[in-house]
């Protein structure tokens, strides 16, 4: 599956727009007391990376349900909430490209 933040894919022709797809993932327990700032920053980054990967997996699964072979115009939103959660939302347009 081709994933891109751009609205087109160089070298490919989009033959059908299949709809908007999303992937949302949340991870709790990002913040822990007793960590130094560098360990805290690493823990937050690891949590965001893991959560982002889950959101992208969900995005791809939803695109496959529409028989898409690519997703264009991807937007990623990352939110670290005050209640120790990392939430990642990924949205794009599922398309069929000629291969």
Offer a quick outline of the entry.
Belongs to the UPF0145 family. This protein has one helix spanning 37-65; strands spanning 2-3, 13-28, 70-80, 85-98.
Question: What report would you give on this structure?
Answer:
The chain has 99 residues and is an alpha+beta fold. It has a single domain (2-98), classed as 2-Layer Sandwich (Translation Initiation Factor IF3). It is built from one helix and four strands. It has one helix at residues 37-65, and strands at residues 2-3, 13-28, 70-80, 85-98. The protein has a four-stranded mixed β-sheet with strand order 1-3-4-2. Strand 3 and strand 4 (85-98) form a beta hairpin. It starts with a strand and ends with a strand. The relative contact order is 0.34. Belongs to the UPF0145 family. InterPro entries: UPF0145_dom_sf, UPF0145_YbjQ-like.
Radius of gyration: 16 Å
Helix content range: 25-40%
Name of the CATH class: Alpha Beta
Task: Estimate nothing, just give the exact number of structural domains.
Answer: 1
Judging by the overall fold, what is the CATH architecture?
2-Layer Sandwich
* Strand arrangement, major sheet: 1-3-4-2
- Low-confidence stretches at least 5 residues in length (pLDDT < 50)? none
CATH topology: Translation Initiation Factor IF3
The major beta sheet can be summarized as: 4 strands, mixed
Task: Calculate the terminal CA-CA distance, rounded to whole Å.
Answer: 11 Å
* Global outline: elongated
- What class would the helix/strand composition place it in? alpha+beta
Q: Average pLDDT across residues? A: 87
**Based on DSSP secondary structure assignment, what is the total number of beta strands?**
4
The ordered string of helix (H) and strand (E) elements is EEHEE
**Please, how many helices?**
1
